[in-house]
Each structure stands twice: as structure tokens, then as C-alpha cells.
Design goal:
Elements: E1 8-12, E2 33-34, E3 37-38, H1 39-49, E4 54-59, H2 64-70, H3 74-82, H4 86-94, E5 102-106, H5 113-118, E6 129-132, E7 136-139, H6 144-151, E8 156-162, E9 172-180, E10 183-191, E11 202-210, H7 212-218, H8 231-240, E12 245-249, E13 253-256, H9 260-272, H10 278-295
Parallel strand pairs: 1-4, 1-6, 4-5, 8-12
Antiparallel strand pairs: 2-3, 6-11, 7-13, 8-11, 9-10, 10-12
Helix pairs in contact: 7-8
The structure holds 1-O-phosphono-alpha-D-glucopyranose (G1P).
The site of 1-O-phosphono-alpha-D-glucopyranose has 13 residues, from strand 11 and helix 8.
């Protein structure tokens, strides 16, 4: 059997971003920047590296700045070209999506991640598709989704990472059957379990390759944890119906940019990766930490 290609990805970007108010009163959370690139750009670059050709954004009211971000900016591009600012010009052009490769659908009510993904159902045919949650930033040598696409061989696959016990209730959690290298076959999945009911410490991170069956399951899934329609429940239904679900223990460091602390850590980590910023920032951080330590 030939391996099925994964060419479509859904980016759920309809969330209100309440944890970043008041900034998100007028700016979508996905446009907040890590150094000088918006969060969404990291997810798009990762998807491109994994071979994704069609990008589907599930948006909501107040997210038009996101659609503008993907659009061409002819005046700006002309000015940058005239000034010979080629590096900046190619950065700007990288953010522009070809008209045929991008689609936006609206989620009219915030009914949960499963519902957001379901809103894109008409754009997904009978083929596996990816889902990327832009809050999860994963720094790695090979893009996390690319690692998964390379390992994927049918069924559904979720990115997985061990998390400390006191955080387990923030995640979808895997009930593990067997390990085969980085791939884990899964017996069950539960969304945000109580700490003492979590089946393992292996949590789902926001990268998925899903069988089209999962979309069909979403037609029938009822509200679960937190009163929301959960993607985890639609994937768990696959297991209940004897279809394969795998966890993939990716290589890389994940930052939870849905939290302020995770966002700050990702900002520092991204800045320290940059040749133009590293030296000055390291010096500043070292001085600052020394002064703090001396003051305590
Ligand atoms: C979502 C998913 C959860 C997953 C998490 C990863 O939760 O529902 O299964 O573990 O993303 O970031 P959220 O963070 O939206 O509450």
C-alpha cells in the first residue's frame, strides 16, 4: 500500500485569547510576536516544512488582522525593493499565502476545539489531514509535523510529550499500549483528566495527523470536558471502533504560548537563537540575574 500524503492542515485560530487581555482586545492572539514573527507564522512554516499545500484557518469575529497578515502588501514590497532591503522583502513575501492555498472558515460559537476542527469539514475530503494548534510552539531541528509525517503510516497520530504530574489535568492524556521507538500505540485518550485518574503522564501536544473518520466522528460527538466538544473524544472514538491511533514522541522543545510564562520563555529562547540578538541579550540576562540574586 502506498503511503497517503498529508497535504491539508487546519489551524484553529478562533479563540478569544483572554489570557492576553487587554492586548487581545484589538489584536488576535496569533498575531502576537515572538521577537519579530507572529505566532501563526511559526505554525505555517512548520506546516510548509512538512509538505502541507492547503492551509485552512478556522477564525471568528475580530480576526480580520490575521487575514490581512496573509495577504500581499504591494506598496510595502515596492518600497522595500526600491530601498534594496532584500532580506526584509523576502520575510514579508514569506508571510504572503498564495490565493489558492489558503481558506478561512468561521466558527460562529466557541464550542470547543473539536467543533472548530469540524467547521472545516467541507474542505477536507476523504484523506488524512493535519491540525496545528499555534499556541504550541515547538523548536526542533526537524519540524515536529515533518517528523510525524515521516513516521505516519495510516490511522491517526498525535504529538505526545511527558509532562509533570501536577500539570497533567491541562492536557489530553494517552493510555499507552506499546512503545515502538518514538511511536506509541494507544489504548485510549482522555481530555483533561483529574490528576489521580490520568492513565499516564504522556500528554497530547497540539500537532495531529487525523484520519478522515475523525471528522465523521465529530458529526456525532457530544460536549465533553469543560462542556466543550473535544477533539480528543473524536480521536478516542477511533480507538473504541478498533482503528489505529498512535502517539509520536517528537524531538524538540515545546513552549505553551497560550500561557504568559510559556510565551515569555519562548520569546527568550527564540531571541537567544538569533545571531543578531544573542550577545546583547545574554549579557543583559546575566547582569539582571546577578542583581536579583544579590538583592535577595
Ligand atoms: C488542547 C487539547 C488538549 C491538548 C492541548 C495541547 O487543549 O484539547 O488535548 O493536550 O491542546 O496544547 P487546550 O490547551 O486548548 O485547553
Amino acid at each position: 500500500m502506498t503511503k497517503q500524503r498529508v497535504t491539508k492542515a487546519i489551524f484553529p485560530v478562533a479563540g478569544l485569547g483572554t489570557r492576553f487581555l487587554p492586548a487581545t482586545k484589538s489584536i488576535p492572539k496569533e498575531i502576537l510576536t515572538l521577537v519579530d514573527r507572529p505566532l501563526i507564522q511559526y505554525a505555517i512554516d512548520e506546516a510548509r516544512e512538512a509538505g502541507i499545500e492547503e492551509f485552512i484557518f478556522v477564525t471568528s469575529r475580530g480576526k480580520s488582522a490575521l487575514e490581512d497578515y496573509f495577504d500581499g502588501a504591494p506598496d510595502l514590497e515596492r518600497q522595500l525593493a526600491a530601498k534594496g532591503k532584500d532580506a526584509l522583502l523576502s520575510e514579508v513575501q514569506r508571510a504572503t499565502m498564495d490565493s489558492g492555498s489558503i481558506a478561512c472558515v468561521r466558527q460562529r460559537e466557541a464550542l470547543g476545539l473539536g467543533h472548530a476542527v469540524w467547521c472545516a469539514r467541507r474542505l477536507i475530503g476523504d484523506e488524512p489531514f493535519a491540525v496545528l494548534l499555534p499556541d504550541d510552539i515547538i523548536k526542533s531541528d526537524v519540524a515536529c509535523l515533518k517528523q510525524m509525517v515521516d513516521a505516519y503510516d495510516g490511522g491517526s497520530m498525535v504529538a505526545a510529550m511527558e509532562v509533570p504530574n501536577h500539570r497533567i489535568s491541562d492536557y489530553g492524556v494517552l493510555d499507552i499500549n506499546t512503545h515502538i521507538g518514538d511511536v506509541v500505540s494507544v489504548n485510549g485518550m482522555v481530555e483533561k483528566p483529574a490528576r489521580d485518574e490520568a492513565p499516564s503522564n504522556l500528554a497530547v501536544i497540539g500537532r495531529y495527523i487525523l484520519s478522515p473518520n475523525v471528522m465523521r466522528n465529530l458529526n456525532k460527538i457530544e460536549a465533553g470536558a469543560g462542556g466543550e466538544i473535544q477533539l480528543t473524544d473524536a480521536i478516542a472514538k477511533e480507538i473504541a471502533e478498533q482503528r489505529a491511533v498512535y502517539g509520536y514522541k517528537f524531538e524538540g522543545t515545546r513552549f505553551d504560548c497560550g500561557s504568559k510564562s510559556g510565551f515569555l520563555q519562548a520569546t527568550v529562547a527564540c531571541a537567544l537563537d538569533r545571531d543578531d540578538l544573542r550577545g546583547e541579550l545574554m549579557e543583559y540576562l546575566q547582569d539582571l540575574l546577578m542583581l536579583r540574586a544579590a538583592a535577595e
